[in-house]
Amino acid sequence: MRIGILHHPKIPASFNLANDIDDWLRARGVDSWTGSSWNAERIGAESLHLNMLIALGGDGTLLRAGRLTARHEVPILGINLGRLGFLTEVQPEHWQAQLGRVLDGQYWIERRLMLTTETWRGDEKVGDDLDALNEVVVSRGSLARVVRISAEINDSYLTTYVADGVIVATPTGSTAYALAAGGPILPPELQNILLLSIAPHLSLARPLVLDKGATVTLKVRTDHAAILTADGQFLIDLQDGDRVVIASSPYRACFVRLQPRSYFYQTLMDRLRLII
Fold it and tell me: Which terminal Cβ of the chain has fewer Cβ within 10 Å, N or C?
């Protein structure tokens, strides 16, 4: 078995914990390596040879790890060093006992829907295709002015949103930005896509839940700046007339779970209590 351990370069405690876990695994005959969660090139290359990845940090670290390992179906165990930790599974004070269970095979794998995104300017593609585990957002830039976003589902016109932006989210993302914008909470085992607007003005305000096979096309109409973001970590500047095409990714992010399969609702309430 080969296990990777990712520490967060901005969380000093994660580096020490990564070394402790590395020593603990090697003492039990497990081949392991440690690296920064910001080193995308190395993580992508190592994913070909890993049986599991341990990520130390918060949800941002888990999102990054999920995108980088999904192509190779590497399961990720998250140890929470962040604030909320919706995606993490283990609290740092319990890592030895929980890792012991993992080595004994007492876990299950949860596979979560991801999105893939293309951006088009006329007949030319703009930037790289983006993958997202939480959400893709088309929104206004720095000016507090609405944008008009024409939405199509499977090449059929739906509506034109007049709003601060539009969110296309996975069930994972339903507890992130989409929740703050008034969207429903979807359990992670669903394979649906969530479509909703941000601060709509005299336009469709109800969120829509779409089938996983749906393709959403968002066309921007604006006389000022607009942007595309994926998981809040990638950004593409958009111009008037640009089209953003969003669909389910063929890949799934895989997470190691030690809790019962019904864990989601209890975890949700625990995290909401932290917010309140």
Answer: C
Active site residue 131: no
10 touches 61 (CB < 8 A)? no
Class of residue 250 by CB neighbours under 10 A (exposed 0-12, middle 13-18, buried 19+): exposed
The CATH topology of domain 2-107+258-275 is Rossmann fold (3.40.50)
Contacts of 225 (CB under 8 A, 6+ apart): 140, 141, 142, 143, 237, 238
* pTM of the complete model: 0.94
CATH T-level assignment (fold) for domain 114-250: Tumour Suppressor Smad4 (2.60.200)
Sorted by sequence, the CB contacts under 8 Å of residue 7 that are 6+ apart come out as 14, 15, 17, 18, 34, 35, 36, 37, 56, 57
Instruction: Check: CB of residue 139 under 8 Å from CB of residue 149.
Output: no
Q: Between vectors from CA 265 to CA 260 and to CA 266, what angle results, nearest 5°?
A: 70
Look at residue 52 in the predicted model and tell me its pLDDT: 97
Distance CA 169, CA 150 (A): 17
Residues, the chain: 276
Domain spans in the chain, listed from the N-terminal domain onward: 2-107+258-275, 114-250
Under a CB-based contact definition with an 8 Å cutoff, are residues 121 and 236 in contact? no
- What's the pLDDT tens digit per position in 212-271? 999 999 999 988 889 999 999 889 999 999 999 999 999 999 999 999 999 999 888 887
| Residue 271 tokens, joined | 């995290």
Both tokens of 49, joined, read 């040879």
Burial class (CB in 10 A: 0-12, 13-18, 19+), 141: middle
Catalytic residue of the set 20, 22, 59, 223: 59
Packing angle of the helix pair 95-103, 12-27 (nearest 10 deg): 40
